[in-house]
Amino acid sequence: MKQLSGIILCLGLAALCDAAAVPQCPEPYGEQAYLHPDHCDQFFLCTNGTLTLETCENGLLFDGKGAVHNHCNYNWAVDCGNRKFVTDQTPLSTPGCEYLFGIYPDSHSCSTTYNKCAYGEPHPEHCDAGLVYDHRIHGCQWPDMMLETCNPEAVVGFKCPDSVPSNSINHRFWPYPRFAVPGDCHRLITCVDGHPRLITCGDGKVFNEESLTCEDPEDAPYACRH
Question: pTM, whole model, 2 decimals?
Answer without folding.
Answer: 0.79
